[in-house]
Every structure is written in C-alpha cells, then in structure tokens.
Amino acid sequence: MPVARPESSDARIIAHVDMDCFYVQVEQRKQPSLRGQPTAVVQYNSWKGGALIAVSYEARKCGVKRSMRGDEAKKVCPQIHLVQVPVTRGKADLNIYRSAGSEVVSILSKKGRCERASIDEVYLDLTDAVENMLCNTPPESLESIDEEALKSHVLGLNKDGSDIESGVRQWLIRRDADHRDKLLACGTLIVAELRIQVLKETGFTCSAGIAHNKMLAKLASAMNKPAQQTVIPLSSVKELLGSLPIKKIKQLGGKLGSSIESDLGVNTVGDLLQFSEDKLQERYGGNTGTWLWNIARGISGEEVEGRLLPKSHGSGKTFRGPQALKTIASVEHWLNQLCEDLSDRICSDLDQNKRIAQTLTLHVSAYKSGDLDSYKKFPSKSCPLRYGASKIQDDALILFQAGLREYLGSFRVNTEGSQNKGWAVTSLAVSASKIVAIPSGTCSIAKFFHTQDPSCSSAKQSHEQIMQGSVPLLPLRSESHSVVVPTESQIGLPETEYSITMSSLNQPEENLKTWEDQEAHNVLAENKSPSLPSGSRSCLELNQTELKMEHSRTEEAKIGNLVSNLERQQQKRKTSKDMGTSSILRFFKGRNNSSSQTLEHGDTRILPSSATESVSMDNFLGQDSQRREAWKYRNDEIDPSVIDELPPEIQEEIRAWLRPLKRPSVPKHGSSIDHYFSPTKNT
C-alpha cells in the first residue's frame, strides 16, 4: 500500500540511474564480438527457445520484443544472437549480473547517498553535492561544459525546434534562474560526469533522470534511452503528468490503478486533479487518498534510503503448465535446490559484509484441481532462519507442509509421500530477510547469537579471525575428538591454532595427511558451534574450499615434534591407572583445577568427580595464563538437534546430564498398606 509522506520544504535533487539492457551489456563485455550485433539474453528453459529477459537496441530495431520466445525472435530477426543465462542447480544464476551491478554502484555512491533499487537501477540523492557545487563552482562560472551534459533533455525546453545543445547551455548557465533550477543544473552536470565515469570504468552505458523527487526522477530516466539523461524542472511537472497514463506510476500498475480507472473514470494522472483530497480520502482511505492527491501534483516525500546492500536475499523458480509440481517429492527436490542457492548467498553476505539474516520465508503459488482461480491463495509462511543448507531445507519443507494443510482447508491432510492430493504448485521461492549487521566488536558469530559481550582486539578482524576467536566448539558428525594446540605464547609456535585428530596419533607419522588437508578438515569440525540458534553452523563450515593454509618447512618440523610429544603423552595416559576416556566434558570444562564441574540445568548440578578425569590438553600442556571462560548453559538453551549429531557415546553422556534430578525413592512410615494396619508400637 502506498504511503503518503510530506515533501521536504528544502529543495532536493534526486537522480535515477537505469542501465541500458543491462544483461545484454554484461554478455557483450564477456564477448566483445557481440557489440553492435542484435543480441538477446534468454532464460534457461528450452521450451520454444526460452523466454527473452533482455533485448539489445539493435534487435529491437528488427522488431524483437521481450515478450517473445527465442524461436519467435529468430523468425523476426534471423541474425540475432541468443545468449543463455548461466544455470546453477536447475535455475538461473544471476550472480554475474549482480556483481556487474555492484561495480556501477561503487562508482555512483561516491557522489551522494545511494539506494540500490535492483540489479540494474540506482537512486542517488545529490542534494549535498549540488549545494556544494553551487556555492563553490556554479555552472555560470565554468569555462566549458562537457558535451554529454549539453546532450541532456530538459523537459519544456526547445519547443520551437531551435538548436538543442545551445538551448541546454543557456539553461545551465542562467544567472537569473530560480534556486531550484540552479540546483537542477548542477545535478545535470554531476550526473553527466558520473555516466561518463561508469562508461570508462565498466564499459556500460546508462540512462538517467534528474528531478526533485524519486517519483519524477524514475519517470524521467525512461523517457530518453539509451545512454541519455532527462531533466524535469518544476515548471514542467504539470505538463508531464497531464498526459501520463495512471498505470505508469509506481504502485498503480496493478489492482489499485485499475480500480481508480474504473471507479473515477480517469485515464491519466492529470485527470486526478479534478478530485479534492477529501473525495479521494473518502473513497480510498486517509493515507491512500492523500498519496493520490500528492501524486497528481508531482509531490513525493519518499527518501533515498542510502542502501548499497539488498534488504533481503531470495531464490525462486516458476513451473508453468505441465511443469507444475504435483507431489511432495518434487516440491522437496526443488526446495532443496533453492535453499542451497539461498544458503550460498547469505553466507557470502556474512563473509563479505558481516551481516546476518534472521527470518526465512516461503512463498508459493499453487492451484487446486478444478479451481484455477485459487493459484495465488497459498499462504506464505515464515520462521527463524538457521544457517546451514540442510537446516534451511528442513525448515522450508516444514513450512510448505504447514502451508499446504492450511491451503487445502484441512489440518488432517497427509503431506507425506508422493501421491497427488489434487493440488499443483506453479512457483516456489525462499527468501532471507531481517538482515542486520553484526555489532562492532563481536568476536564470534556464536557469541553474537548468545548476546554476549566479549572483548575484541579489533573490530576489523577477518571472518576467519572472528570464527577462531570463539570459544572451543563441539565437533559434529565426527567420531574423532579434536584438541587445540596452544599458540606461540604457550609452546613457542607461530600464532596459529592447529587442530589434530586424536585417532590419527596412533598412526605412523609418514601416513598422516598433509597438514593443509588435515587442518581444513579439523578446523571445520571445531567451528560447528552449539551456541548458534537451533543448531546453526557457521559459514566457515559451508565454505570448505576457501580454507587454504600454507606452512613453511620449519613449521612442519615443529609440528612433527609436537605430534611425537602427543603420541608419548597418549601412551602415558593409557598406562595411567586413573586414566579417563575421551569425553565431551572437556568441551564444557572450566579453566580451573577444581575437581568438580558444574552445568546449569534449572538448578546447579555437580558432576561426578570422575567426569573431570577426561582427556584434557590442560593436563598435558599445563596451566596457561590466557584461559577462556567456562561455558554454562541452561537446559532450554541446548538444541536437541545438535545432540543428535554427536557420536552415540557422547549423546548418552549429554542426555544423562540433562535428565531432571530425581529424588531417591526412600520408603516413609505409613507409605504402604502394611504400615497402615500394623499395630502401634509402644514407646
């Protein structure tokens, strides 16, 4: 629903930059031979040659339209080059286009507040930049004006057909111009400069609109394409909107626009001027009525949000006609593909931008057999997002099953198996939203989710350092027990943490894997944290191929000596009379020498003293002055799914800790029928 926002009393200069047939330009940059040739980018499906999603201007001149399929485009323009979108996991992979769009954004954002509206369009608030230019180097003081700026289209200028460039020059350097028009002139020069810079650095052309608000700027950018810019002064707003169709306005292209056309009998935005604000509010409500009244006059207070990164991440796919999904098995298959894609994107966002998504949402379009009008009524479902592809896949399937029961009108519907239940899915999409930045100073993702406040040496640590800075983590899906070799301050090695699999210590040294491979495996095992919500795992686990560690021969020699020492120490443990077995207790063990250990479970419980006799690197390496604080958890803070992933012997041990304490069953006097009927003793 549109929101009515009051326009600022101060003049603003907003630009909307729209890339020209951007997908085609990206492909032409990859294949320069396509430049100047009729080209179109097609979707990945093969039906009738695939759907066109971008058409070059050369192909448009031949009659090719975006609504065509590939086969039809070839008939209209036999010489057209059809380039297929990259495909990953059975769906379009747009990462190459997103990355190219980011190149453009990085250039544009240097001049003002920047809002990335989509892959190929950006809003810029240039108010501060134009104010500064007007004060220091106003257009009338410039000795020369760039040719690109002189090619600008100024709405309402040169109606008599006179020389366009000469008219634009005079408009730009007017000394008696209104203050708002002077700001627009400065904005025109700045945007022309930015467009030239984008072309030089990326090879992409773009069109732009310059106006006093976002609505007008977006309308202007589409008026003259490609590689041109349009300016809308306030004096020309009424003329522009007077003939503009209602549905050309953002948020009026759907049902609301159709309702306005039919209810009010209007066709253009200018036709709304005949209705008072009260009349519009009476029919469409206070907020929408005021918004419509403002739009008819070119008023819009919507701000440029200053967002370079997306608000959410999504992955979806449509299944038209016979491709519609009619079984749970087929839905699960595609949900798995989409969730893997989504997981990759949110993990990349975490690694690169240090942001975490908090909500997972499933969007489905479906229809019931014999009821084709119901295809949009499938309920969207959301839940807290858990990092890890398998976790997201499990949650998405549960959301679908819940939505399907609600959609079919019965909570007794069996959503298991592959039997057709009289429904078909025409589109699936999963999205991750409520993305927030990791607070400055957070040393680990685990501690971020637990709202802890650990101290950090620097907030600019790399992602690997952030993950290594967390407390010791539980190994999942592994029967080996990892130990952390201390840093240089403890035994003289470089400041790097090494992980060693205990089961490998019994093998000859020459049979061990290279340290690079072994470390990558063990670091992944150690960085699966139980403290992430609902068993979420860090992105470091999901990016195994990114873990590349190089060590010098000197370091390998030192590590080899360390392995020998560990082997001897393990042999001593085997011969020790009081030796304890490898236990999960050492992961929770406090960094002290006490003979007992506590674990919070409602009330504080004291573990058996034998529990503290588990294998511990503390006993082997001695006490160190930089020990980390002990972990303490309540029962409801430990995710059962994490326990299920542990080795069986450790599962039993953990569950034993979590069982409620039972009072010993001590018979009391009078607690049995025998005591009741027994004769009273004489005292």
Provide the descriptors you would attach to this structure in a database record.
683 residues; alpha+beta; four-stranded antiparallel beta sheet; globular; 26 helices
Summarize the topology.
Elements: E1 14-19, H1 22-30, E2 39-42, E3 52-55, H2 57-61, H3 70-76, E4 81-84, E5 87-88, E6 91-92, H4 95-108, E7 113-118, E8 121-125, H5 127-136, H6 147-150, E9 153-154, H7 164-172, H8 179-202, E10 206-211, H9 214-221, E11 229-231, H10 237-242, H11 255-264, H12 277-284, H13 286-295, E12 313-318, H14 328-353, E13 355-356, E14 359-368, E15 381-384, H15 389-408, E16 423-433, E17 436-437, H16 445-449, H17 463-468, E18 482-485, H18 488-491, E19 498-501, H19 515-526, H20 539-542, H21 553-575, H22 585-588, E20 598-601, E21 603-606, H23 617-621, H24 640-644, H25 648-658, H26 673-677
Parallel strand pairs: 2-4, 9-11, 10-11
Antiparallel strand pairs: 1-8, 1-10, 2-3, 5-6, 7-8, 12-16, 13-17, 14-15, 14-16, 18-19, 20-21
